[in-house]
Amino acid sequence: MSGASRSDLERAGIWPRARESGYRHRRGTTAGKPDEFVEKCMHGERVVVYTTDFCGWCERAKSLLAARGVRYREVWLPRTPEGLERLAEAAPRARSFPQIVIDGELVGGYTELVARDRQDSLSSLAGCGEGA
């Protein structure tokens, strides 16, 4: 939906996916401990992938997780100032997509996910979560 306005996204049912948490930005999120926004997005899932539209690295990360049998919850965020604020809530130092959170701990982006895969730490997550 290139060039779509917020009202267009709302009518299409896309915008609420990014607003499901009742977000309010807080500073000082501690690394390694899931904050309120992350916990709401996890819904009991062990793996959460924050994505956006037209993101090749997001697709690669989701494909890698699927190939390893890791089920995950995808949280779509718009590439707007509000979407980037929400990303900052989940991953305070992150400025790009995707961002992957495993067991409430920020892993990072696709490169860090591949590094975990090479360490074989994704295999213990196989069959966990919801899958997207």
Biggest sheet statistics: 4 strands, mixed
Number of H/I helices: 6
Hey, roughly how much beta strand do the residues contain? 5-15%
End-to-end Cα distance: 20 Å
Which shape, going by the Cα principal axes?
globular
CATH homologous superfamily designation: Glutaredoxin
Residue stretches low in confidence (pLDDT < 50, at least 5 long) are 15-34
Global mean pLDDT: 75
Number of strands: 4
Class per helix and strand makeup: alpha+beta
Name of the level-1 CATH class: Alpha Beta
What is the CATH topology assignment? Glutaredoxin
Write out the strand line-up for the largest beta sheet, numbering strands in chain order: 2-1-3-4
Radius of gyration: 14 Å
| CATH second-level architecture | 3-Layer(aba) Sandwich
The helix/strand order is HHHEHEHEEH
Total domain units = 1
Helix content: 25-40%
Structure notes:
This protein is of the alpha+beta class and 132 residues long. The chain has one domain (30-125): Glutaredoxin (3-Layer(aba) Sandwich). It is built from six helices and four strands; from the N terminus they run H-H-H-E-H-E-H-E-E-H. The longest helix is centred in the middle third of the chain and has 12 residues, at 56-67. Residues 15-34 have low confidence and may be disordered.
